[in-house]
Design a protein that fits this description.
Helix content is 79%, strand content 0%. The N and C termini lie close together (9 Å). It is globular, with a radius of gyration of 17 Å. It has 229 residues and is mainly α. It has a single domain, classed as Arp2/3 complex 21 kDa subunit ARPC3, CATH 1.10.1760.
Length: 229
């Protein structure tokens, strides 16, 4: 694993710990401070990525293009709750170009798509969730699991659930005055339909489009010698 990928994982884990710690320590109104902290950390990772590695203009354009595709893909499906083709694009970017690129495209796609769909305290949480989705796809891309369609589909299904469960945290953090086991169970129970919709749509997009997209991205990567890890 590349040194920068290790740094990415460490910073992300510290980020999650900071979310939990700030929730416990600050108790109320913590979600605003946590949101700003998450944004700052994601931006730090973004710039660290470019500092640690020599990036060509071609590679920057490629990442920007893939981020735009991931962001725009979300907009037409907005009326259908939790059907997220954005997740499919982010997973494919991680598989082909690696963990760092997957994280960057996931985080940027969340930020850009919310320009159209609405920014709010949930945005940095989406940036982190989609970023980690892309990063984990990149970290697991050479495993036997990700080389099989059923394994890739399982990965998409699991991340559809994890994404929803992580996003539930910002709801809980922003209503700490109501915090109780009953409230937590209620929040997670009410999201089951949306989480399953996300998971099943991930499976659909991966089964139908993953092979063709992967071939195109691999060909593009090989032809121009881009983003080698």
């Amino acid at each position: 694993m590349a040194r920068s990928s290790k740094i990415l994982i460490i910073v992300s884990l510290l980020l999650v710990v900071s979310i939990i710690a700030s929730t416990i320590v600050l108790q109320t109104k913590a979600y605003l401070l946590v949101s700003f902290a998450v944004i700052a950390c994601i931006l730090f990772i973004f710039f660290l990525r470019f500092e640690l590695r020599s990036i060509t203009g071609r590679e920057i354009v490629l990442l920007a293009m893939l981020s735009a595709i991931a962001a725009v893909a979300r907009v037409p499906f907005a009326p259908i709750p939790s059907v997220q083709p954005t997740s499919f694009v982010i997973i494919l970017v991680g598989l082909v170009f690696g963990a760092e690129s997957g994280f960057l495209v996931g985080a940027i796609a969340a930020l850009v798509s919310n320009i159209f769909l609405g920014q709010g305290p949930w945005t940095p949480w989406q940036m982190l969730a989609w970023g980690m989705m892309g990063a984990s796809a990149g970290l697991l891309r050479n495993t036997w699991l990700m080389k099989k369609m059923w394994g890739l589909s399982l990965f998409g299904f699991v991340w559809g659930l994890l994404f929803g469960w992580f996003m539930n945290l910002w709801i809980i953090v922003s209503h700490l005055e109501s915090l109780s086991w009953g409230y937590i169970i209620g929040v997670y129970s009410s999201s089951i339909y949306f989480d399953l919709a996300h998971s099943l749509s991930n499976i659909f997009f991966l089964i139908v489009f993953a092979s063709s997209w992967r071939k195109v991205l691999e060909r593009f990567k090989k032809k121009y010698g881009l983003l080698k890890e």
